[in-house]
Write a structure and sequence with these properties.
Order of helices and strands: HHEEHH
Distance between the termini: 23 Å
Strand content: 5-15%
Oligomer: single chain
Length: 112
Amino acid sequence: MGSASHLLYRVKNRSLYPKGWRELEKKTLLNHPWCAFCGAKDRLQVHRIEPVHLRPDLVLNESNLIVLCQSCHLREGHVSDFRRGHDPNIKTRAFENLTAIRIIQTQDGIKP
């Protein structure tokens, strides 16, 4: 489900994962079983677009979530820094990136 650094973060910040988070996380992964940024289907994690320390009111809001693979979660979702980085435009960038990937795959005759 996650890298060692991500799991350590979750343990240290247990209060950021309120009652209902695990169910919402599972539901989100079931509804979106691929990385929204690159299309990968393994090592998926649910990312909060607006971090809870900035927007605690969005902690369980589905519209504040995006599914990313482990690599994209750190690199794209957190701009390479789990503790300080976040990209409020990740959904737009993910859509544009995945669309570009699908166009290239289609042109090359590759099935997604």
